[in-house]
Design a protein that fits this description.
Layout (H helix, E strand, L loop, with lengths): L1 H26 L14 H19 L5 H7 L1 H8 L4 H17 L4 H7 L8 H21 L28 E16 L2 E17 L4 E14 L1 E2 L4 E2 L2 E15 L2 E14 L6 E13 L6 E14 L8 E14 L2
Antiparallel strand pairs: 1-2, 1-10, 2-3, 3-6, 4-5, 6-7, 7-8, 8-9, 9-10
Helix pairs in contact: 2-4, 2-5, 2-7, 4-7, 5-7
Amino acid sequence: MGKVSALAWGPVLAALLAASAAPLAEAAPPRAPPEEAAPRDLAVVGLLVDLEKMVEVQQSLGWTIDRYEIDEIMSPALMSVCSATAETRATALAALDRQILELGGPVEEAFRRGGGDLDEVAELLFATRVRALLAEAMRRARGAGDAPAECPFWLRPSPAFRGRETDAYRTTLNVEGGGIVVLEGAAGRVLPGAGGSARMLLGSGLDERWTFLAGGEFGGTAQLEQTETKTRFPISFVAALPMVLRYHARTWHYEGELASLAYFTQDDLRLSPGLRAGALVGVSSLRMRGVMPWAGLGIAVEHVLETHRRPAQWNLKGGVRVGFDWDF
């Protein structure tokens, strides 16, 4: 009898559970499949990253009339578009069309709906400009009417294209240098100073956003040491092995750094080991002959470990750094 009752109540309980879950299912929006479900098309990502950086560079100079602004950056745009296959170009264009619709485009209609406030449609306007650049570059790449195709004959489309304006999936040489201001604190006193440093790093592009760099650095600073009887400018030196993780956001990049270092002075050439932690914000331009110039502001804290030769020391450093990223 118990078995019969359980069998009889089973469909009823299932119906009740389904009915109670129905409103929740209707209220919850459909969940998009995770990004990992479909592998990214790396060629499309590389092409879009290139074009977005070009538009951001041009916007930073003051974007006015679309036609003329697009002409200004058409040469680097064609170098990227001509390197991508027709399928990659079409997929990138379709992705931009979807993005524009998701942002409420077309931009002219969104601008009117927003009461004529450009700030309200800034993201949509940017995507629209990227799409216009891609569409025009595609038109010139394939030629139209009597106009010949404008792609260089020696530049062949490749499915392996990963972008030109990124470090993605390639090895780069980075040469950097700049001026430093420093506060050196040791033995109960703090000395201000200034100097410079230079470094050479090898970079490995993990993807279009992240780059890992490592290499060597050497720098020196002169401190101002004032006493009642005299003024001195003692010079200290640092040799370091920095490791840097850099995040790229179109023209901007942000990096964190850890380094082991050796500290010595002109008065005492014996080495004291130390550690450094630092950060930097930089801005870059487009590549020129494989070289991407950049400039940034950085800050770092160094701790020189105590040894029998000298006491522990803390250094606070900051300054401007310039460099270039060479895709060799």
